[in-house]
Specification:
With 404 residues, the chain is of the alpha/beta class. Helices cover 37% and strands 17% of the residues. It folds into three domains: 69 residues, Arc Repressor Mutant, subunit A, CATH 1.10.10.10; 125 residues, Nucleotidyltransferase, domain 5, CATH 3.30.420.40; 165 residues, ATPase, nucleotide binding domain (Nucleotidyltransferase, domain 5, 2-Layer Sandwich). The strands form three sheets. A five-stranded mixed sheet has the order 5-4-3-6-7, with helices on both faces. The chain starts with 16 loop residues before the first helix and ends in an 8-residue tail after the last helix.
Length: 404
Amino acid sequence: MPPRQTQIAGTNAERTKAHNRRVVLGYVQLSDGAGRAEIARSSGLSTQTVSNLIAELEHDRLVVPAGRRRSARGQPPVLYTFNPAGAAALGFEVRPDALLSVLTDLAGTVLWQAQTPLPASDPETVFALMADLAGQARAQCEVPVLGAGLVLPGPFGVEGLSAAGATVLTGWQGFDDAAAQAAEALKLPVIVEKDATAAAIGEAMLGAAQGLDTFCYLYFGAGLGLGVIAQGQPMRGAFGNAGEIGHVIVVPDGLPCDCGNTGCLEQYTSRMALRRHLAARGLLSPDTPPGGGQTDAVAARLLAVEDAALDAWLNEAARLLAPVIGTLENLFDPEAVVLGGALPDRLLDDLIARLDLPRGSVARRRDRARPRVLRGASGRMTGALGGAALVIHDTVTPRLDPAP
């Protein structure tokens, strides 16, 4: 099957060699096998440029020859296929109380993973632990590690949203500083991304959003975030803070939020809100960490016995979430809205089942091939997997690099 027609064309300008390399590798990745002349015709690159890049990619073990294609006349062309086992990528997700780590090949297959409690979430502590874990991961790997994705809860550099509260990290100044410090600690290139956006990329690679070009991903970490993938590309906003859906006001004069507003969505629909609801009814200790597994374990047990307190929370969360999903549908026209992250699958399934989605939505189409709302399939490690997916995405997805 040939690659989709949205493939970005290459250019013969020397300064865009990295872009051309991604064009060629991305084309090969999306094909069942491609020859150099075919790649050149599709991309607009010269055959010589493609030949040089194929030789480089073959040397790096990112593509491998896969026989020849029969042709009507002349020498059959050599076909090349993507080799996901030729390199690896690291992913780290920093939560307020834990560091989640994965090592994957370039197809997203997990080669190693770890979930490590954090005694503190300041950068110095986190980077030291990341360096140790990266060493453990690389000891399990016989191929080059191309880089690491570092996934953090946001927002960054925003005066209007408080940098205090259960869902954010303290002491982190911004994406650029975090990337530079992490790269120094790991001795690897590092890409930093907000958790919901990274999780959306991970879900597209490994989960329920595979095959979707445009979708919205509601990420349940400690709070609630949004990742938007539009035509295969993540939407980040002007300062990397797109998707702070948890701070959309859904209850005027409602519960106070750390951001300074009242009635924010994540005060009602998030793991943090669930923990507070259960603790207020004596079903959970008030000291339970906001991102800890204790909340999930208690919620799963209560769901199994159809507990009235959990039932009440699910009803309220679904009632407030449904119109927000309708708004996302009308704003972004996604193929689907995916709910995922750290909330247990059974709880997400129950929440989705209770959604009374608005009838006035562009998503109400007779020719729909899938439900309007899907449950994510990449599990609790979605954010860390998204970190590794950032590296993979950067390796195979064409983009124009700035001129020097």
